[in-house]
What we know:
The protein has helices at 2-20, 29-39, 53-63, 66-75, 86-94, 122-133, 139-148, 153-164, 173-180, 185-188, 191-200, 207-214, 216-222, 225-245, 249-260, 265-282, 285-299, 304-317, 321-337, 341-353, 357-374, 379-390, and strands at 43-48, 77-82, 102-106, 112-117.
Amino acid sequence: MRFLFIAFxxxxxxxxxxxNQFVPxxxxxxxxxxxxxxxxxxxxxxLYADWCPHCNLMKSEVLSDSAVKDxxxxxxxxxxxxxxxxxxxxxxxxxxxxxxxxxxxxxSNENLIYALKGEMKKAEFLNELQYSLNPKMQxxxxxxxxxxxxxxxxxxxxxxxxxxxxxxxxxxxPATHIYLNTQxxxxxxxxxxxxxxxxxVTDIKSREFQFVLQHQKEFAAVASQSRIDKKIENxxxxxxxxxxxxxxxxxxxxxxxxxxSIRLQKTDSLVFKYDLTLAERTEKWDFYKKVTLxxxxxxxxxxxxxxxxxxxxYFKHINDTESLKKxxxxxxxxxxxxxxxxxxxLEAKLYNKIKDxxxxxxxxxxxxTIAKEMGWDSKETDILLAxxxxx
Length: 391
């Protein structure tokens, strides 16, 4: 009897779990669109990936909720597309999806009427579902209202804030420039227009961003210098990061010159770090060496950790003695900033690579002393010391 009772509990528990689990229904897109047209309902499309933690959280904590499921099934024709499968790939490209999960709300003619991205709590998601059904909160209506009076900041922000719910920053740019084109240079310098620029301007060559660069003190008076600095960093990141991520070296080398034309140390530092990341990922060690020899002392001289990273890359991939001596100089400065175990060990390895046994022993012993004092494992140092003492 006890065994049967336990088995009954197990089956009951599994039934409850299965009832609460969300299983994406992959209705063919064309079929879902035809059904939406036939039933005069909007189409709801979730774009997701199995590896996306935010997607999985939405499935397990929000879309599995009975109130959410009931609302979706009552008001929409729903389909769920994995962006790594055929229809999901096509929809991701069609609607320029860059964030996951993305929720698209389409009318029967495939017009985007609303969009959401990212994870949300159940109450917030239900509210957004209701907003998506309100014609006066949908994108086509808000765009029409804005375009009828593009200098109206209230209408612009209403449209922009709805766009932001489902679009990445680069897709906010067209509406932003339409509004900003109604503003004179003098009008640009206001707290309100600074917010517009900060949220919607992504083109580093645009009139508005170039105007910010030339009038930083005036904008700092209506915002703050830290906010100006943050915007400058963001726009350089938005320009270069996708090119590095995609290993698009041809476009990167063109765009880096635009970023460097800003001629500020903070942007030069960003370009420097992107240069090194791209060089490492594409194994362009001559370019890596050229960039570091030109700018290491100018841009990262007080960053002990970064100096060690560069030194470690030289140890692994650079072989000419003069360049290695430069790396030794940088790592030595990192030790002046922070006398560390890994820094001393790296210095020992670099000296060993240029066949300076005396200096290699000196720094290996320092590393051993630090490891002993801290109670750390010194196996790598011990191996190096044994090798040096054989010579």
